[in-house]
Automatic annotation (TrEMBL), chains A, B:
<keyword id="KW-0028">Amino-acid biosynthesis</keyword>
<protein>
    <recommendedName>
        <fullName>Arginine biosynthesis bifunctional protein ArgJ</fullName>
        <ecNumber>2.3.1.35</ecNumber>
        <ecNumber>2.3.1.1</ecNumber>
    </recommendedName>
</protein>
<feature type="site" description="Involved in the stabilization of negative charge on the oxyanion by the formation of the oxyanion hole">
    <location>
        <position position="120"/>
    </location>
</feature>
<feature type="site" description="Cleavage; by autolysis">
    <location>
        <begin position="192"/>
        <end position="193"/>
    </location>
</feature>
<feature type="binding site">
    <location>
        <position position="403"/>
    </location>
    <ligand>
        <name>substrate</name>
    </ligand>
</feature>
<feature type="binding site">
    <location>
        <position position="279"/>
    </location>
    <ligand>
        <name>substrate</name>
    </ligand>
</feature>
<comment type="similarity">
    <text>Belongs to the ArgJ family.</text>
</comment>
<dbReference type="GO" id="GO:0006526">
    <property type="term" value="P:L-arginine biosynthetic process"/>
</dbReference>
<dbReference type="InterPro" id="IPR002813">
    <property type="entry name" value="Arg_biosynth_ArgJ"/>
</dbReference>
<dbReference type="Pfam" id="PF01960">
    <property type="entry name" value="ArgJ"/>
</dbReference>
<keyword id="KW-0963">Cytoplasm</keyword>
<keyword id="KW-0808">Transferase</keyword>
<feature type="binding site">
    <location>
        <position position="182"/>
    </location>
    <ligand>
        <name>substrate</name>
    </ligand>
</feature>
<comment type="pathway">
    <text>Amino-acid biosynthesis; L-arginine biosynthesis; N(2)-acetyl-L-ornithine from L-glutamate: step 1/4.</text>
</comment>
<keyword id="KW-0511">Multifunctional enzyme</keyword>
<comment type="function">
    <text>Catalyzes two activities which are involved in the cyclic version of arginine biosynthesis: the synthesis of N-acetylglutamate from glutamate and acetyl-CoA as the acetyl donor, and of ornithine by transacetylation between N(2)-acetylornithine and glutamate.</text>
</comment>
<dbReference type="GO" id="GO:0004358">
    <property type="term" value="F:L-glutamate N-acetyltransferase activity, acting on acetyl-L-ornithine as donor"/>
</dbReference>
Length: 408, 408
């Protein structure tokens, strides 16, 4: 059951000129599921990607990195669910390349101009025959208004599609921004978290787009965690087709600030939607650390709290067991932390000061906050001026059930 | 339900000359539970301790460190369950000191010669009145044969008492070694894990005992993990009363090797018993990493696997979902890891080679191993000569239930 995950209506999804999408059922792992998605991009599109840092990164991730590094254009993406093509060695690499070749032949573009993506079970061979047999069906459906189908087509244990769309007016011209994401478990920062594809019809030159992809990922997908598990496959792809007539070639361009802000907000929403639909989640938790000496310090504390199974199970139980939060702060790895300076809020309730319980804290106040579906934990360290925020969810019976049953 | 946790019979527990123990029901948190334990140590005993590295370390831990640092003798320990006296600020510190003063008056020793220990709920004031009211009852029971009662008296969410006892013959003289431990959740290495008290009637001089306490903890309690949560309170105390007539004053003494080996094995068993009785555990997992370039590397990989909720839920399901183990190895933080050199065994089954699945691996072989209650995961990194081992357990519905309900 997702936590307050907003799904826009069809009429709120704006196609991005220059992007066509086709989705089909290829039977990759099970029949009757939309599991194969193709993106075709107009000539002249810029594409940049940020990929998992897992050393066991999947074959398609390796192929993506190679194709992007070649500096040539990208004209299509191909995404399958049901199989991650990870932990599959040289044979897996060949299957990812063969996927690109097969789609290239059908679209009449070189294989090097295609990026492949896979998500699903690790350590099993990608069923290449079924995948390539499905490609013509996906291509037959290529159309600009298929973003919703794509959001469905990339889902695995997700319960709801994740989609974000907006239009902004830039000096009288309309710029569209639409993106999708997937991911529900094996979610941890450092771009190892999920698949997300975000497109705009603004023109953004390739070197700037590469820089922007990293910067935007850092403010969105690198600020969420579900279970601390960094996946082998996950990828964020930023596409700029240029079809709107709005062009950005440097950070000093008039349109830069507006477009980047809109892209960042879209990515942050797509990232938070992953947490809202996390496996078994019943609570959406915002962990905000203030008065840190550095971003690294703030994130150490925020992730220690966000990853603690004891904190996460207490939130599942709506139990204001705040000692577990203090314990997590204490083991976050800041060696000279002075706990007597720390203040801790649960929602608007100040629960801890001076290294202990706030004398005026009432358990009933804590319980009132814990019953909400969205909870802000705010921690002031008393060490500096830096603040940062991480988003996570609680840890429920359902998480165990889903992950104990996933392959069965 | 603990996994193969051996409980010795009463006749297998050897008293340690110089150690008397008394246990009582003080009603610290709930009535009708043995929750207060006193150890009285003979004059001339040496005592050393290793304590949590959590910055929110509890008041009794701070008092222990202060009393041990003073260099004076230690004549008694006092241990309560039901309340951790952690996150309690200056008031908590005073209550820990007052506990020592109260026991000191009753035993006629200075408060500085007493070490206090607390375990239980964090962030709530220690009920000092009930604790001190219980002390005379514990003292009335002081006797050398109360180790079993003590093992019960320090339990919290533990389902079984954890006790280890042995005698060794050292050049014709008998040396007794007996210890207890507690802990079931909030278990993570770096001595932040549990309470354990291990005593011998060998004589070991204070500076050597201090060194040994660190060395033994590192080979036992610092090699286990349940949930990665480092607690605020936990402590390992090593006691040498000298009453056996066997004396060790340096590492070159004849008795040194035999006594240290026996103490280390006792501590390792007490540590592994904690994992066997971990909250909700149904499987005991040994994660052995070989061919690492350093101990740090071996432990990074072992703990990444041992902490992964996805790995732990797969083991709960007896599902040989080995890709999750590879993914954890991949995100363990070894930046130049060459995954093509890695080999992975589940029990005696070689499941992965060359960065992918072993071509001759059969899923039925993996399933056979996964159905066992004790499973060895062996990972060869192909980087060097160092090996190390970490012990952990699976992650079940029961873990969520226990931790969602703990305070309720």
């Amino acid at each position: 059951m997702a936590v307050n995950l907003q799904i826009p209506s069809e009429s709120e999804i704006f196609p991005v000129a220059g992007v066509e999408i086709g989705v089909t059922e290829a039977g990759i792992r099970k029949a009757g599921r939309r599991d194969l998605t193709v993106f075709r991009l107009a000539e002249g599109s810029s594409v940049a990607g940020v990929f998992t840092r897992n050393r066991f990164r999947a074959a398609p991730v390796q192929v993506c990195e190679k194709h992007l590094a070649s500096g040539g254009p990208v004209r299509a993406l191909v995404i399958n669910t049901g199989n991650a093509n990870a932990g599959t060695g040289a044979d897996g690499l060949k299957r990812a390349q063969d996927t690109c070749s097969a789609l290239g032949r059908l679209l009449d573009v070189p294989a090097e101009q295609i990026l492949p993506f896979s998500t699903g079970v690790i350590l099993e061979p990608l069923p290449l025959d079924r995948l390539t047999a499905g490609l013509p069906g996906a291509i037959a459906k290529l159309a600009p208004d298929q973003w919703f189908d794509a959001a469905h087509g990339i889902m695995t244990t997700d319960t709801l599609p994740k989609i974000h769309s907006r239009r902004i007016d830039v000096a009288g011209k309309m710029v569209s921004i639409t993106g999708i994401s997937k991911g529900a478990g094996m979610i941890r920062p450092n771009m190892a978290t999920m698949l997300s594809f975000l497109a705009t019809d603004a023109a953004i030159e390739q070197p700037l787009l590469r820089k922007l992809a990293v910067q935007i990922a850092d403010q969105s997908f690198n600020r969420i965690t579900v279970d601390g598990d960094t996946s082998t496959n996950d990828s964020f792809i930023l596409i700029a087709t240029g079809k709107s007539g709005v062009a950005i070639s440097s950070e000093s361009d008039a349109a830069y600030a507006a477009v980047v802000q809109a892209l960042t907000e879209a990515a942050a929403d797509l990232a938070q939607k992953i947490v809202r639909d996390a496996e078994g989640a019943t609570k959406f938790m915002t962990i905000r650390v203030e008065e840190a000496g550095s971003t690294e310090e703030a994130l150490k504390v925020a992730y220690a709290v966000a990853h603690s199974p004891l904190v996460k199970t207490a939130f599942f139980a709506s139990d204001p067991n705040l000692g577990r939060i203090l314990a997590a702060i204490g083991y976050a790895g800041i060696d000279d932390l002075d706990v007597s300076r720390i203040r801790l809020w649960l929602g608007d309730v100040l629960v801890a000061v001076d290294g202990g319980r706030n004398p005026s804290y009432q358990e009933t106040d804590g319980q009132r906050v814990m019953k909400e579906a969205e909870i802000v934990v705010r921690i002031a360290l008393g060490r500096g001026q830096v603040a940062d925020t991480v988003y996570t969810c609680d840890f429920s019976h359902e998480y165990v059930s889903i992950n104990a049953d996933y392959r069965s």
